[in-house]
Description:
- This protein has a single domain (2-174), classed as Cyclic phosphodiesterase (Cyclic Phosphodiesterase, Chain: A), CATH 3.90.1140.
- It is 26% helix and 43% strand.
- Helix 2 packs across helix 3.
- It is of the alpha+beta class.
- The protein starts with a strand and ends with a strand.
- Strands 1, 2, 3, 4, 5, 6, 7 and 8 form an eight-stranded antiparallel sheet that branches.
- The protein is globular, with a radius of gyration of 16 Å.
Amino acid sequence: MRLFIALKTDLDKNKVFSVEKALMRKYHNVKWVDKNNLHLTLKFLGEVENFQSDLVKAKLEDIASRFTNFVFIYQGISAFPNKRRAKVIFVAVKDGERIIELMKVIDNDLSTLGFNQEKSYVPHLTLGRTRAPLDISRADIDFPSLSVSASGLSLVKSTLTRYGPIYEVIAQFDFA
Length: 176
């Protein structure tokens, strides 16, 4: 099964989606993320065998016990690789040090199970992807600061369909 680890939050998806809808009106050649699929990915695991998913769950339970709830801020629209050549449009995270710390612990602990470590990581909330780069530097769509509470980890199964991915949370781990 295809798995990833997401940050469990109290995100108001309706507030994010209202900004996404404004972007949809301006940019049409983008595959926009469905409102129900909005999430902050900490680590993409890829295809994982059932026996290995049990080992991942044990690691995530241990990791979650070492962290407490924290607050972070979503602020502003940005893009990878940059706003002038956007291929991934996202909401940026302001002061994401705690998220990066958590991701590094996950990355390190799961490397003992054979998962590759990330070369770099920028916490973000993906809104859409495009094959042909777009210039969104003059989008003039503001994303107001949105305070979000992080309370744990979610292990999510991703099933790809021709209509888009279907996400199913298969396990959750609350912070201590």
